[in-house]
Specification:
The complex is a heterodimer of chains A (301) and B (419).
Chain A (H helix, E strand, L loop, with lengths): L7 H19 L3 E4 L4 H14 L8 E5 L5 H14 L3 E5 H6 L17 H11 L4 E3 L16 E4 L27 E4 L7 H11 L10 E8 L2 E4 L13 E7 L10 E3 L5 H10 L17 H7 L4
Parallel strand pairs in A: 1-2, 1-4, 2-3, 4-6
Antiparallel strand pairs in A: 5-6, 7-8, 7-9, 9-10
Helix pairs in contact in A: 1-2, 6-7
Chain B lengths: L7 E9 L5 H11 L5 H13 L15 H6 L6 E6 L3 E9 L5 H9 L3 E7 L6 H12 L4 E7 L8 H15 L6 E6 L23 H7 L12 E8 L11 E5 L4 E2 L4 E5 L4 E9 L2 E2 L3 E2 L3 E6 L10 E3 L6 E12 L5 E2 L3 E6 L2 E14 L6 E2 L4 E2 L4 E14 L10 E5 L6 E7 L1
Classes of the chains: A alpha/beta (301), B alpha+beta (419).
Chain lengths: 301, 419
């Protein structure tokens, strides 16, 4: 060796593992919010490394909107099996049936905003005091100001103007009864870092991320997959396209990109030359300039 | 863009206020390194037009929160990312006003390098002193002084030389080791990414060249072995029945299997059996690696303990002298009880005495003070309920730093550097 410095990927890995271990040490009932997307898959992978040879000492929570890509669910179940961890599913359909939330109507209706209620109910039910997520600061401007340890009041709200200062790597997870923390171990990773690491570590991903043929409809410049959860406008038509996904949200709101990138090398090349942000394909972020900040304040991921 | 998987990470901080061109400089670095996406530029253009500007206001890229956009100010530390084929960069973008000293300290705590901006027309100002003082207090290993707006002084070498000379004189009173100077125009792009044709007299490198090449491998302490234990890993499975691993991050020195180690506070010694992560053996572990260690002997080790080498131990004390930056609305008063966090250890503590306060603009000591307000920097003595295993902050930024937490509100109220 003789070279006493780490590559940027190793340094980011080490930082994330440090944060995950800190969570398990400082909190009584942590959990990992698992969406089935690449960032939460990466997080599960880092958690495995942090505690090996012991198993991951917390459950994975999946908030199921009922509008998932079938590929995501199949992948999730296989991963749970491989890691030997507990999975808890919070169901948005159940929240609707119980009258906790009301479904949006109209052609652009989505269950994205409804998830927040199901998420907070699930956290409360399980008495989770630290919910880890795969959000990154480079994704969105409100997230650029997020802490690793993000304090939430008893209503699950984020108060961005009154955040605790975070110095060195001395994380303060102290809280009152009923409050909880959201924790973001991969805060400092960029989209490129995630892809490079996935390649370096040989982490497997749902097939959605790789180029495939799919029935799609183009709405307001966003390529949406045709599914039972989407209602077509009269002038819209379905066509077969070669696409892949950069993020994995709900079927009705996550846009695909036209791409022939069938493997990680191709994807990394595409990410390096692409000129739009990852969440640029997310209809939920386009509901106003501070759409993300507003949702985060009320307890969104 | 060429893609490298083995480049280093450089974390730097930029402090500055609205008019000294900080946002423009960051915008320039992001734009010239092609880290701004088309949809981001589109959004900023739309917002600029809405506000009635006839130019694209790049500062809108960094102001994220609703109230910041409304008021046109930066409230909080924002983190920005960009990469060149040589390095990955994390920018901690902090506002530079006096009332935001706490944010500057926060951004500086994790930085390898600080960029200090000076307006060529104005020369050294109070805020230059403040920013340099904080960089030296937080022991940021490298400082780059950018003399900005050179286009507005006709790219005049004499103006630049005079500012450099003045700065050197001022900095000699402080502990800033590695200082570089670059004459730039962030607006026009001179000497930021591209070499300036307007300043052929400048023989030194551009700002980006410095960022890409400054030697950061020695920023970590690789001499004094320090391993604070974060947690104990015990799988309790048939396969790993007797496994007992100590998980944590190396905070100093180089550890190897076979090395003799001493456990603090118990004082027991043992040998490292192996160092691993995810079952893969690690021949040499150094800062900032997260690893799991096993020892030859079964001894009692738990979170908050520290593994060191028997012939190189840190200070073990309950009385500390600390420089603090106070970060809370409620002032600190003498004999206040707090919770102190240091590495993976946490204990009760009391601020016994406020020795003096530093005026961050003049750097004068104010000895007659019994209350410390938000954004104040002061030297205090602290008594802890249990001994801490620490090094002076100047020797090791990880084992020399603490935070203070209010026991009632749970807020982080101070950052501290052990003297």
């Amino acid at each position: 060796m003789g070279q006493y410095y780490l590559s940027h990927l190793k340094e980011l890995e080490s930082e994330a593992i440090y944060v995950i271990r800190e969570v398990v040490s400082q909190f009584e009932r942590p959990a990992l919010l698992f969406s089935g997307g690449k960032d939460s898959i990466l997080l599960a992978h880092l958690a495995k490394k942090a505690f090996y040879p012991a198993k991951i000492p917390f459950p994975l929570i999946h908030i199921d909107t009922g509008h998932n890509f079938p590929e995501t669910l199949a992948f999730r179940d296989a991963l749970i099996n491989e890691l030997g961890v507990n999975l808890v599913v919070g169901s948005v359909q159940k929240s609707i049936d119980q009258g906790r939330v009301r479904e949006e109507t109209g052609v652009n209706a989505s269950r994205n905003a409804l998830q927040t209620v199901t998420l907070l109910d699930t956290l409360e039910e399980l008495k989770i005091d630290a919910a880890m997520g795969g959000a990154r600061r480079d994704e969105e401007k409100a997230r650029a100001k997020e802490r690793f340890f993000s304090h939430r009041d008893e209503f699950g709200q984020w108060d961005p103007k009154n955040q605790r200062p975070e110095l060195w790597s001395l994380f303060n997870g102290k809280k009152q009864m009923g409050e909880h923390f959201r924790i973001f171990p991969i805060s400092n990773w960029t989209e490129m870092d995630v892809w490079q690491y996935i390649k370096e570590e040989g982490i497997s991903l749902p097939s959605l991320y790789f180029a495939h043929e799919r029935d799609c409809v183009v709405r307001d410049g966003v390529i949406l997959a045709n599914s039972d959860y989407i209602s077509l406008k009269p002038d819209e038509e379905i066509k077969k396209m070669l696409v892949r996904y950069r993020t994995c949200g709900d079927m009705p709101i996550t846009g695909a990109v036209e791409s022939d990138a069938k493997d990680l090398d191709k994807i990394i090349e595409e990410v390096a030359t692409t000129r739009t942000t990852e969440r640029g394909t997310r209809a939920d972020d386009k509901r106003g300039e501070t759409a993300m900040e507003d949702r985060k304040k009320s307890g969104y991921f | 863009m060429e893609i490298q998987e083995n480049n280093q990470l450089l974390r730097f901080t930029t402090a500055g206020s609205v008019d000294d061109g900080k946002s423009t400089l960051i915008g320039r670095l992001l734009y010239d390194s092609k880290s701004i996406f088309e949809d981001q530029i589109e959004a900023v253009k739309t917002s600029s037009e809405k506000k009635g500007f006839d130019y694209v206001d790049l500062s809108l890229l960094t102001d994220g929160l609703r109230s910041e956009r409304e008021q046109g100010i930066t409230i909080d530390v924002a983190y920005r990312y960009f990469a060149t084929p040589k390095r990955k960069f994390i920018i901690a973008d902090t506002p530079g006003h006096v009332q935001y000293t706490r944010n500057m300290v926060t951004g500086a705590s994790t930085a390898n390098l600080a960029i200090i901006l000076i307006d060529a027309r104005k020369g050294l100002l109070e805020q230059t002193h403040r920013h340099t003082f904080i960089a030296s207090l937080l022991k940021i290993p490298h400082v780059v002084v950018c003399v900005n707006k050179m286009d507005l002084v006709d790219y005049d070498q004499k103006t630049y030389d005079k500012i450099v000379e003045e700065y050197k004189q001022f900095a000699s009173k402080l502990e800033v080791k590695d200082v570089h100077f670059v004459p730039i125009s962030a607006l026009k792009g001179d000497n930021v990414v591209e070499r300036s044709k307007n300043m052929p007299w400048h023989e030194g490198p551009t700002l980006l060249y410095l960022l890409e090449n400054v030697h950061i491998a020695s920023d970590f302490n690789h001499i004094d072995c320090r391993f604070p234990v974060q947690m104990v890993i015990r799988p309790h499975t048939h396969e790993h029945r007797d496994f007992r691993g100590y998980a944590g991050r190396i905070e100093g020195g180089i550890f190897k299997p076979g090395d003799e180690v001493k456990v603090l506070p118990s004082g027991f010694t043992s040998k490292i059996k192996d160092i691993q992560l995810n079952g893969k053996p690690i021949p040499e572990a150094f800062s900032p690696m997260s690893v799991t260690m096993t020892l030859e002997d079964e001894i009692d080790v738990s979170r908050g303990d520290m593994l060191v080498r028997p012939n190189n131990v840190p200070e073990v004390e309950q009385d500390l002298d600390v420089m603090i930056c106070w970060m809370n609305q409620r002032p600190l008063s003498s004999r206040a009880k707090v919770i102190l966090k240091h590495t993976t250890k946490e204990c009760q503590a009391m601020v016994k005495e406020i020795k003096y306060k530093v005026n961050v603009n003049t750097l004068h000591r104010e000895e007659e003070t019994d209350q410390i307000q938000m954004n104040d920097i002061a030297r205090v003595s602290i008594r802890t309920a249990q001994p801490l295993f620490y090094d002076a902050y100047r020797k090791n930024r990880q084992t020399g730093s603490v935070i203070l937490i209010d026991a009632y509100s749970n807020e982080t109220v101070a950052a501290g550097m052990i003297i």
